[in-house]
Amino acid sequence: MENNCELLRLRTIRGALRELKKEVPETCITYGMIRNLCEEEKIQCIKQGNRFIINYDFLIKYLFDRKD
Predict the structure, then answer these.
(1) Alpha-carbon distance 17 to 38, whole Å?
(2) Which residue segment(s) compose the domain that 24 sits in?
(3) How many CB atoms lie under 10 A from the CB of residue 12?
(4) What's 5's DSSP letter?
(5) Span 36-51, mean pLDDT?
(6) Residue 54: is it exposed, middle or buried by C-beta count within 10 angstroms (0-12/13-18/19+)?
């Protein structure tokens, strides 16, 4: 039996921003920008109290793979 389990990289906004800055040190993405994306429901997220939990891979896809 195959196990095709994919781990989700769930992060708080601060955690996602920290990881993003490790990968792309010169990024101009801010905490407020990511929070606005969550509040405007432009990226998938879960609200837990005052925190947003986001899928880091979806955030990266939204930020860098967009075709406008």
Answers:
(1) 13
(2) 10-63
(3) 14
(4) -
(5) 93
(6) buried
Instruction: Tell the burial category of 14 from Cβ atoms under 10 Å away from its Cβ (0-12, 13-18, 19+).
Output: exposed
Taking residue 55's Cβ as centre, other Cβ atoms within 10 Å add up to 18
Q: State whether the Cα torsion 51-52-55-58 is positive or negative.
A: negative
Does a structural domain hold residue 58? Answer: yes
DSSP of 6-56, one letter per residue? ----EEEHHHHHHHHHHH-TT----HHHHHHHHHTTSS-EEEETTEEEEEH
User: What's the confidence (pLDDT) of residue 42?
Assistant: 93
Residue 4, domain member (yes or no):
no
Structure tokens at 16: 């996602």
Q: pTM of the entire structure?
A: 0.82
